[in-house]
Amino acid sequence: YSGGELVKGPNGVEFGDLSEQGIWFKAAPTYSELIDAVYKKLGLEPATHNVRAQGRTNVGGGAHRHFIMVPIDDDMSWSNYVKAVFNGTDWNCLEVYVQTEELPSAEPVSPEPALLDSEPLDAQHQNTPPRDPELGASLFAPSMVTANAPTVHPQHSWLRRIRSARARAGIRGQVAGEEVQSGQYQCGASGTVDTTSCLLIGLYDEVHRARALAAGQHLTELNPRNREPLRFDKRYERYLRPAGLMGLANICRAGLPSIDRALVSALVDRWRPETHTFHMPCGEITITLQDVAMILGLPISGHAVIVNKTESYIELYQRYLGKAPPSDKSRPGLRVAWVRAEFNKCPEDADEETVKQHARAYILSLVGGLLFPDASGDRYTVYPFPLIADLENIGSYSWGSATLAYLYRAMCDACRRQSDQSNLTGCLLLLQFWSWERFPIGRPDMLKPKFPNVDELEDDRDRPTVGLRWVVGACTYRSAPARCYEHFTNEFDLLTDDQVVWSPYRDDRVKTLHLAPICTQDSHLWLTQAPLVFFFMVEVYTPERVMRQFGLHQECPPPFRDTSVELHWYVQRYVCCLCMVVFDSRKLEIMYQ
After folding, report:
1. Which residues form the Aminotransferase-like plant mobile domain (predicted)?
2. Mean pLDDT across the stretch 523-530?
3. pTM of the full predicted structure?
């Protein structure tokens, strides 16, 4: 395509009235062969004209097609463009747009094609309004695009930083504990340097999935672990509303979508334990407390989800469920099959105590099956059961922050698993809805949602959350399912700034949803820097790295706070004791001392 300008249509870049000419190759051409063929087709000479080439590719998901242009200026960018287009698609041609520029006779001819007119990458910041990538300017360096591994923001180009470079960088110490001091890396005689330009922690990076992909290793999708909750009964509502779990229950009642293992695996490949963010070509982005509250409607304010258990679990089951499961000491947890057999349906003539017992079992299936799923696949996580047993006080705990802590830890573990049978736990429903809200990749078609009439609801707490719209109005469609993981990985490689919905909860987007009050009642805590706690898990929360998600100015480079390798290694008993001391004394800062 040549002889005019690109136009922007409803599905991204379109060629409009450009002149269209076909070039046939008997074998896959190199970049030089492509440019030579273009010169010949247009009747031009390299001595008199310069040619700039861009390729069109679809970065939409499913039935949503969204086309952008990517620059082609060397063998690597050409090779990666070819792979990105053909992998996981049914396309049988490549669409290349060329611009020609006549060279002045006095000007020497450059041996290399001119680059697109764009800002230097090191001058771009997350808080700077991007140029329109669909009309020619690119937000990533073509030489950094790969078909098998994620690309990176210029300030976090970790894919190219190998462990052997430590000596060249002058970083002292052989283990992460020596490298990280006071939130900064030590660097030679100059003291400290900005951590965004230093190496990533080798203990994480040497086994990271993205590092393996960059090395050409073939990885398979992670196995998601989550379980369907028990059957809902309207008599449970009186306990779900004060617990802050009505939003999650409404999503389950409407019908849970299946977890897209290709999508969540491609996301985990870009997760970095050092920052608790996803490293995308256009910057860092992460799941925040705002997302937890808006999507699932979970309470953020409240006590930490920890407990000092004084009774055995068998005694707790007998007291609060009315019966105990058969003895099974092989693995911790409560068998899903037993819970379903005993509590899946509450009898119509049940007395109040029986209804409470079934309500506890239902809440356990929500909490232990969706928010904190066990990796075994056939058991419910029972750590929260002592808190669930007291139906009157369930809502006094910060289930939202605990859910985020558990998901952070799950992704920190999964991003370093490379075996074919590796599992992924955490609240994957939250991860998938969050991705659909922000990225076009893997997003299903959204039909007209059928939300409940808020005027007919008994209680304002029964109003929908943002997550409900993905189960009452979604129609999934995806081509080439056998190669979706590779396809999604390539699409994230080409993700541009304008494709990301940085602030999906703007008033103009959600005002028609009539959200439940719990979605915004804890908004004053969304930017807290307190740690996230779930029993033995303590995770650092870093909203200062993604201020753009809150509609605020993003400082670049963002301030660094250590997510602590040692903290990820703490054994259960030690951290549980630490958490009890911290929260009994109300001094969160002790957590890091």
Report:
1. 247-560
2. 92
3. 0.67
Q: How far apart are CA 543 and CA 575, in angstroms?
A: 24
* Residue 428: strand pairing partners: none
Peptide bond between residue 543 and the one before it cis (omega within 30 degrees of 0):
no
Amino acid symbol at 577: C
| Nearest partner of 489 among 151, 70, 54, judged by Cα | 151
**pLDDT classification of 446: cutoffs 50, 70, 90:** confident
Strands of the 192-193 sheet, one edge to the other: 180-181, 184-186, 192-193
Closest C-alpha to 93, from 44, 36, 20, 18: 20
The owner of tokens 């480079």 is 557
Average pLDDT score over residue span 337-357: 94
CA 359 to chain centre: 32
- Distances in Å between the alpha carbon of 322 and those of 240, 349, 386, 389? 20, 17, 14, 11
- SS3 track for 233-265: CHHHHHHHHHHCCHHHHHHHHHCCCCCCHHHHH
Reduced to 3 states (helix: H, G, I; strand: E, B; else coil), residue 132 is coil
Task: Tell me which residue of 363, 362, 372, 355 sits closest to 394, measured CA to CA.
Answer: 363
Q: What is the 3-state secondary structure (H, E, C) of 11-75?
A: CEEECCCCECCCCCCCCCCCHHHHHHHHHHHHCCCCCCEEEEEEEEEECCCCCCCCEEEEEECCH
- Number of Cβ atoms within 10 Å of the Cβ of 179: 22
Bridge partners, 99 (sequence order)? 52
Sign (positive/negative) of CA torsion 329, 332, 338, 339?
positive
What is the identity of the amino acid at 464?
P
Residues in the chain: 593
DSSP H helix total and E strand total for the chain: 21, 19
